[in-house]
């Protein structure tokens, strides 16, 4: 069911995951460009409170094929930014982040929608995915293979942990990081993800291209703690928290709290990020800037905007 104050559905960009951490910024960037946007959502009323009146909303269940089919009417491009990394959704991660995406691609193909932008993980290093047994990594690899062997005009945007993660580990005057984090890690402002994805959706010249979205330089958590301290004008101490306790808790609570198990794997990824890929962030950033027109948000600017209540 389509819900919206105005009907501008013809040639819309349809977004799956439009209310998520990245999706909301993608929607806002498209709205600012006056591009017709349709947001697929389970709850249109709640989505409208978050994103405003300007997008159109298609209310449906992403696990329902008929809902997906109904949402594809008068759509010229699709952005897929689905994530189940939430305590209430984690039990359905495969259904949401793999099965639903495959259904979207199948039905988009039938509807002859050519342009697909897929928000994926930063890099597809299989040995690391195997080492950490990252189910989500296997899902994304298979989806990217599906795109590579299709007739879609597709672009994959590999996304690292965003600047939001630094705030999630910081409380008052302490940044507490399980495992301590990798020596270097690429990261990106969610606002930049929104702008890059919005531009990608309305262009036809990025077919079969994969970009790593990153800021101008990689970071370490101690370095970020110092930068937060400098911006806020008060000392933020960095503290490394042993992973052992978190791992034990994830095992004990798994039957009734599977989210913690997935969180531990995510934290392990943060602690095992390949240094060579992290160092490549400087080059990856230059590639982004040569392909997209945007003013990237620095970590310091993000801190000033987002850490006000810290």
Q: State the separation between the terminal residues, measured CA to CA.
A: 40 Å
Q: Tell me roughly what share of residues is in helical segments.
A: 40-55%
Main structural class: alpha/beta
Identify the strand order in the major beta sheet.
1-4-3-2-5-6-7-10
Mean pLDDT: 90
Task: Write a brief caption for the model.
The protein is α/β, with parallel strands linked by helices and about 300 residues long.
What does this 3D model show about the protein?
- This protein has 310 residues and is α/β, with parallel strands linked by helices.
- It has a domain at 2-159 and 189-214 and 275-297: 3-Layer(aba) Sandwich (Rossmann fold), CATH 3.40.50.
- The chain contains 14 helices and eleven strands.
- The protein has helices spanning 23-32, 44-51, 65-71, 93-110, 126-132, 135-148, 164-168, 190-201, 221-232, 244-253, 258-271, 275-279, 281-291, 299-306, and strands spanning 2-3, 12-16, 37-41, 56-59, 75-80, 115-121, 153-159, 170-171, 174-178, 209-212, 237-241.
- The strands form two sheets. It has an eight-stranded mixed beta sheet, with helices on both faces. The chain has a three-stranded mixed beta sheet with strand order 8-9-11.
- Strand 5 (75-80), helix 4 (93-110) and strand 6 (115-121) form a beta-alpha-beta unit.
- It is globular and about 55 Å long.
């Amino acid at each position: 069911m389509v819900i919206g104050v105005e009907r501008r559905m013809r040639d819309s960009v349809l977004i799956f995951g439009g209310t998520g951490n990245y999706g909301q910024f993608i929607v806002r960037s498209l709205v600012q460009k006056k591009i017709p946007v349709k947001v697929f959502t389970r709850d249109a009323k709640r989505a409208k409170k978050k994103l405003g009146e300007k997008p159109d909303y298609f209310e449906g269940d992403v696990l329902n094929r008929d809902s997906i089919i109904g949402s594809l009417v008068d759509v010229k491009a699709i952005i897929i930014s689905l994530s189940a990394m939430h305590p209430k959704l984690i039990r359905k991660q495969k259904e949401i982040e793999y099965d639903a995406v495959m259904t979207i691609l199948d039905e988009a193909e039938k509807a002859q929608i050519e342009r697909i932008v897929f928000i994926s993980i930063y890099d597809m290093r299989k040995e690391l995915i195997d080492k950490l047994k990252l189910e989500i990594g296997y899902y994304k690899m298979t989806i990217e293979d599906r795109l590579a062997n299709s007739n879609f005009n597709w672009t994959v945007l590999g996304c690292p942990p965003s600047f939001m993660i630094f705030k999630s580990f910081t409380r008052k005057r302490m940044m507490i990081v399980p495992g301590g984090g990798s020596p270097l890690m690429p990261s990106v402002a969610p606002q930049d993800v929104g702008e890059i994805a919005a531009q990608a959706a309305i262009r036809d010249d990025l077919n079969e291209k994969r970009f790593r979205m990153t800021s101008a330089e990689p970071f370490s958590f101690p370095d970020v703690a110092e930068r937060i301290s400098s911006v806020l004008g008060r000392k933020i101490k960095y503290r490394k928290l042993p992973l052992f306790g978190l791992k034990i808790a994830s095992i004990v609570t798994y039957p009734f709290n599977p989210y913690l198990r997935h969180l531990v794997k995510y934290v392990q990824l943060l602690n095992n990020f390949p240094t060579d890929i992290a160092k490549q962030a400087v080059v990856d950033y230059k590639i982004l800037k040569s392909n997209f027109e945007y003013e990237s948000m620095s970590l310091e600017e993000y801190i000033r905007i987002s850490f006000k209540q810290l």
